[in-house]
Amino acid sequence: MISRLLLFVTFFLTAFPGKAQQANPAENTPEIRRAGEMLIQLAPEANLQKVLADLNNLSSNTAGISLKRIVSAKWHIHLIQFDEQALPAERLITLARKHPGIDIVQLNYKTQERNTEPNDLEWWRQDNMTLINAPKAWDASTGGVTPAGDTIVAAVLERGALFSHPDLAPNRWYNWNEIPNDGIDNDDNGYIDDFGGWNPRTGSDDDGNQGVHGTQVNGIIGAAGNNLVGISGVNWKVKLMNLADVQWEDEIITAYQYVADMRLLYNQTNGDKGAFVVVTNASLGLDGERAENHQLWCAMYDSLGKVGVLSVGATANSNVNVEVVGDMPTTCTSQYLVTVNNVDKTGEKVLSTGFGATSIDLGAPGQEIYTTTNLSPNGTNTPGYGTIGGTSAAAPHVTGALALLYSMSCENFTLDALSAPATCALRVRELMLDNVQPEPSEEGVTVTGGYLDLERSVDAIRELCNGLVGPLEFLNVRDLPGNQWRIEFQTPTFLPYKFRVFNMLGQQLYEREVIPQQFASNFIEYDASDLPRGVYVMSIGRGKLITSRKFPKF
What we know:
single chain; alpha+beta; Rossmann fold; 6-stranded parallel beta sheet; 4-stranded antiparallel beta sheet; 24 strands
């Protein structure tokens, strides 16, 4: 009887090892988080030293709880360290969550790159660009600057990249307001010597690991096009901001703050300082993790969105419903985050990619994508080309596409990029998502039911720009039952206009301000019930620019 019981126990433990791992992943796979570290976000009025002293007192001063570094001063986020042998992490989390000076507490997790190994290093054709109709979009724009002259920047969170690669070097972003290596914050942005980007781990613009993954991702987004060298990225001329050594969760937060600071500074100085970052790319993540356990990470996307920065995240490389099993960052709910899964060369969802009807927005090519690479990352750093697969490759297609849309020649599409950055960012996001290529295998398992189609997005911008912006005029005036009038109009700008009604003697009887909406049907509803019978004049204008039209009241 005892031998049978032992046999059963042995079978159970060997046949179902995953259950124990899922119960407490930090215990069984310690590499997914850094032991003895915790992220806390303080309430705005809280004092850090008092909070640390309180936590030490509550834990009987056994764990040596102290500040390791300030992750984000603006957002009151700190990385603290403690002796986990003396104080279990779960106990410290419990104590910290009860402290009135702490808003959010979580462990410091390590992300994983989300690529799959390529099968054929000699495959050279960029059929991924054909699938998303990039060549047709390039007829309209190949990236670079907005109609207003803002240099478009995409920020890439990676361990590093080989920016000496001839297809990446022309598009690397530099902070020209900073003098490199002089030990001075020349542009007063809060960062010293951030000439070539920012490395949260070293607190400098160190390039980090100039390896394979980051070099491949950057190439998909923005390898220089039409230069007689190698390949073309989705965006031929976008500037690539290097955020290096980004792997742990505290580094992700610091990297995102750098982006937010630079874009906010650009908005506030009308482009004199900072950087016009419109999108970030994160081809990394955490499998099976739920957003509620990573609130600080998720909160970054709204903070970035408010200053005009969209973010793109890659989902898991396994056939799982992320809304059931969890995934980071693609289960974060921010409207400024665009989440991507993987489709093959025909546009069909690959089996080994995550899905979720409300969490995953769209698909993009991620199968054997030919791009820039480092052929000897552990040696001489040799520029070359190779393939990458998985959502690590899918996400940067979307990143490059979003940046490209900002360069379209329709000035009004991004006219408010600095004055109303969040509104502009959401407009770009929704236009892209509203114009995907429908795909049956993505229907019901993604928000849009399709994959990236650059040509459709470009055509939609053209239609909006040409159809709804033009000379000041009434487009349609309709007499509705009950003496109601619906007046459809267009304007050359989106500034406030005055709508007025006059009698035939020129006396003003009615006035209201109307503010035209960008890329939407503009109309006025007017109630003429109180007017005596007769003929009247309606007008709309701004300053000396006025158009008018007669209408009867029966």
